[in-house]
Specification:
The complex is a heterotrimer of chains A (326), B (200) and C (637).
Chain A: H1 4-11, H2 26-58, H3 68-99, E1 113-118, E2 121-126, E3 135-138, E4 140-144, E5 149-155, E6 160-162, E7 171-173, E8 179-183, E9 189-194, E10 207-213, H4 215-226, H5 235-246, H6 249-252, E11 276-277, E12 282-283, H7 286-294, H8 296-299, H9 312-324
Parallel strand pairs in A: 1-5, 4-10
Antiparallel strand pairs in A: 1-2, 2-3, 5-8, 6-7, 9-10, 11-12
Helix pairs in contact in A: 2-3, 5-9, 7-9
Chain B: E1 2-8, H1 22-51, H2 65-89, H3 93-108, H4 111-120, H5 129-160, H6 167-196
Chain C: H1 10-14, H2 18-28, H3 34-39, H4 43-72, H5 82-116, H6 125-147, H7 172-200, H8 213-244, H9 258-290, H10 299-312, H11 328-340, H12 342-358, H13 365-387, H14 390-396, H15 400-430, H16 436-462, H17 479-509, E1 539-540, H18 547-550, E2 554-559, E3 567-571, E4 578-583, H19 590-604, H20 611-627
Antiparallel strand pairs in C: 1-2, 3-4
Helix pairs in contact in C: 4-5, 4-6, 4-17, 5-6, 5-7, 5-9, 6-7, 6-19, 7-8, 8-9, 8-10, 9-12, 9-15, 10-12, 13-15, 13-16, 15-16, 16-17, 19-20
The chains are: A alpha+beta (326), B mainly alpha (200), C mainly alpha (637).
The structure holds heme-A (2 copies), dinuclear copper ion (CUA) and copper (II) ion.
Amino acid sequence: MKIAPGCALFLSGCAGTQSVLNADGPSALALQNLIFLFFAVCGIVFVLVMGVMTWALVRERHAPAGQPPIERSMGRIVSGAVVATFVVITFLTAASFYATPSLDRGKADPPTILVRGQQWWWQFTYLDPDPAKTFQTANELHIPVGTDVRLRLEASDVIHSFWVPNLAGKQDLVPGRENGLTLHASKAGVYRGQCAEFCGLQHSHMALLVVAEKPEDYARWLNAQSGPAAVPAESEAAAGKLVFMRKPCAACHTIRGTEAAGTTGPDLTHVGSRSMIGAGLMENTRGSIAAWIADPQTLKPGNNMPLVPVTSEELRQLSAYMSGLK
Amino acid sequence: MKERIALDLSKLPLHGTGNASLTFWGTSAFMLIEGTGFALAIAVYFYLMSLAPRWPIEAPPPDLAAGTILTLLLLVSVVPNVLVSRWAKQRDLRKVRAGLIAMTILGVLPLIPRAFEFSALHINWDDDAYGSIVWTLLGLHTTHIVTDLVDTVVLAFLMFSKHGDNTRRYGDVEDNALYWNFVVLAWLPLYGCIYWVPRL
Amino acid sequence: MTRHGKIPSPADLAAGDEKAEAFLKATWSTPAGIVAALSTVDHKIIGRRYIATAFVFLMLGGVLAMAMRLQLAFPEARFISADRYNQIFTVHGSNMMFLFAVPVMEAMAVYLVPLMVGTRNIAFPRLNAFSYWIFLAGGLLLWASLALDTAPDVGWFAYVPLAGPQYGPGKRADIWAQMITFTEVSALAVAVEIVVTVFKLRAPGMSLDRIPIFVWSMLVTAFLVIMAMPAIMLVSTSLILDRLVGTQFFNPAEGGDALLWQHLFWFFGHPEVYIIFLPAVGMVSAMISTFTQRPAFGYLPLVLAMIATGVLAFGLWVHHMFVAGLPRVGSSFFTASSMAIAIPAGTQIFCWLATLWDGRPIFKTPMLFIIGFLITFVIGGLTGVMVASVPFDTQVHDTYFVVAHFHYVLIGGSVFPLIGAIYYWFPKMTGRMMSERLGRWAFGLIFTGFHLTFFPMHILGLQGMPRRVYTYPPELPWTGLNLFVSLSAVILAGGFLVFFIDVLRSFRHGPAAGSNPWNASTLEWATPSPPPPYNFRHIPVVESREPLWTSGDALAVATGLRLDRRELIVSSLTTADPEARESSPANSIWPFLAAIATSVMLIASIFSPWAVIWGAIPVAITLTGWFWPKRTPEDES
Ligand code: HEA
Ligand code: HEA
Ligand code: CUA
Ligand SMILES: [Cu+2]
């Protein structure tokens, strides 16, 4: 059930996934309207200019070129067209100004989620006044529908750009600076987004999913995520946990409720609940987790997780453990 | 195409001077390029300053002595420089030769306080962004002093050679003098930036 | 040069004495042999070299584009690795901007401006030779690095910190930054030459209001270069310093700032695009006049529009940084200023339309490219107006929508006019006509291929496809369009291929051109094709804005220049009254040697800061050799 949104997304033929023109939420809708307005106005300008050009090229000519009276009237027409250009761009500038506030919705609200861009995955920290309830997750952002969710955007290495086109315009994450962005989904659903600023080798594989849920679902999710990791039930997974702690895995990954507290890699406390792994690289199944652990560098060349040698036995145990971390 | 002679130019001089000198315009264009460079470097200085909580970020303001001596030296050098330029215009070979020697000395002299300016900054180029920009400003300007010095030395040799007594050379001397004025002038805002802005 | 007998006088030349003309030719010519070829300072030879080299870079850059299109044709394709792809798009962009578009425009100016203003060589011809060699060295540096698999992989604007010391290992970003230094030095040198040539070497009588529009465009461009390029010199040097000696310009932990890079880069980068576009404006104005057989309508508005574009160009740079997190009010100001560019751009378009309307269009190949230009550039300009809007841009920035925008303006706005210009001026440069039949094919394929390739990219961008991705997942609805784009790019490449074939073929076998095959009005057509080494037997005297259309059957000329030394006329800035007979430097090997010394210094300084010190010594020596007088007649005064 947990991976249902992801599956639904990818099995439904994906019409309109990650598209500017399939907006949801007030900000993206305002932008979509602005885009249509610009297309309409510029379309008319284009047709007019091309019409005049065609006419100029094919018209019958009677008088010789360069007659002073004709020069004068052409001068008047050209001036008129320049004035018209001025009017049109003034209008477009005004329309643009008018749409600008939609970008800064909820700017005054305190941020609820800290987004850190890393080469090449997303770290989300759900902030809570109670530090015990503050927790981290990766690559899959859950938000409640119908409210503004304020994000604080930071980068830990190079510049990235947070972009979920169906919900809002993009905003860069700049090292040493703090930016913000508001997401607002009006319908429950899964929205794909992708890093938009070139950030090195695997910029292409730095996607994220935004899961917009009904407030009660969201509350349930929040509650589940803020808790510690599930204790492995069956023996294979329990063995996997031991392998995880023994191998270098724990040096890079955190699994809350265990001694694994590394911070270089994504928090894996509830990795099994996410629908994708590797920042949108693959659907999350036990098999894909195993494939990832077995050879991350072939699946996502250059990413910051090294190949940790494990036996096939250990691999099976690890993947059982990982996919059990719902 | 057939030709119709409309103008006879044989009376014109064989070389353009002043406004009609190509090198004058070329030098001016290069001064515009370098002036833009200096202006941008100063803009970077203020940009970094606007971001910093304190300025200098982590250093006392630079000591004034070396920089001020250099400034005075540069300002003084303008007088002989203008004279050399005037003598060149008058095509006075003897005076131009003497002047170029003087200008060579006045080109070397500022390098002495300059050497002390870097330590007067009390910061290294790699300590922080403040250090980087002040070192860059000083370095940029030092390159200009050195370039013009080399230019002056070569010109001095030329004026003592058989090629010396030639309107072209006098024009070169004038352009070189013009460039030195630029080097001095460009220093003044840099001096203000490096030494006085941190004291504001 | 050993020449016997009595030195002919200017009067002999005026009287039509052939010996006198031969003598003049010997004074100006470039002898045979390799050393002479390396020593030449003839702006026509250097200009041709420059143009040819830039087109080679276009071809190479185009091959990289095709490689990218191959990789992107299919989702999750594995033709090219991520690392290779990143090098390829970086080199494609850097090559196209710094080694093709800017140099080719300057090269056209190097060839054409001295002819169009009626003089015998460009100002500072040795600097001109130097600038070509430096340009070539910069190009070789970049391409050698690609061949060695160590090419820059940080994008053509090399944002820090990705390009900085921490995240950009190896020498890749240094190579990028130093390639910039090479191309900027050469561009700045040419800009200075153009400014001084236009200011001071115009033929007598060519007052400001008689300067051909193409020459105006190159003058404005040269000023843009002079004011814009110092920014990139400064910033690329800072990057090298950060990487090599540990300065902290871009390190936020030590008071530096990542956005400082973006400000300085785009302070240069935006004017850069008009440095590429304004020469095209000049070319279109020149050609449209010839192919409608009337002066371009609106001389003054056209010139003012170019100047206005040039001035405004410095107030737009933030529109490349709309999503970087700058204050909205400030950003919105840049929306207004960017949109304001539509006014001068519109003025130009309207003036050309008026010219077409009133004149008699002659549908030769250059005219076809002008029509293609009008259609394509207007689309590209309108998408420019779209991305100029802050809110609009937050959705399309760094997507294929922007890739579409800039290929429309770069290729539609500059390359189309450029190819038209090659068809137009090829006869002047080589003495031979290009093929009208192949020209039509080239136009048809390039125009169709272009729109089929780049129009769908707008849609891809709106569908959320970011730029600079080496691959994309098959689930997203981008697959079909990407394949379509890649296939269309083959048509486009085919068009370029036809064009290149036509150039090579016509160079050998084209029909002879004669001095003025198109019945054009400007001075470059008053001399044989290709022009003799001295350009004009006699310097023309300009009596109107269209000298060749108003001078009847005989061109007014000036006599009195010596034949035994390279002489040209210095004239006054506004009215172009002759002020002096100035000499123009003779051929010299020193600029070549100085370029080698400079290249060694610049390349070595990628590896050690001390190279700047020891490397400066050979540079100083070669420069002294360059300027040291050689007792030639040119040194007389
Ligand atoms: C030849 C090069 C060229 C030219 C001429 C232009 C012209 C313009 N460009 Fe473009 N631009 C580039 C090359 C060019 N550009 C490049 C290379 C980039 C990307 C760099 C990168 O990121 O890699 C870029 C990116 C770019 C951006 C940043 C986008 C982003 O990264 O998100 C913006 C934003 O404002 C912009 C705006 C404009 C505008 C307003 C014009 C205007 O000058 C257009 C004016 C022309 C017209 C408007 C058409 C003619 C006018 C009329 C027919 C009159 C009627 C018109 C109206 C009423 C509107 N350009
Ligand atoms: C004047 C500049 C210019 C020109 C002419 C071109 C020409 C082309 N460009 Fe380029 N492009 C840029 C400037 C230019 N580009 C810039 C600045 C960038 C941004 C880089 C960055 O992000 O850093 C870019 C980026 C860019 C991208 C985006 C890459 C990415 O973000 O991942 C793409 C993708 O399709 C592309 C495609 C093309 C194509 C298909 C052509 C075609 O028009 C090329 C056609 C020409 C030829 C093919 C060569 C001639 C033909 C032959 C010699 C025939 C034989 C050859 C073959 C059959 C292979 N370009
Ligand atoms: Cu992160 Cu692109
Ligand atoms: Cu721009």
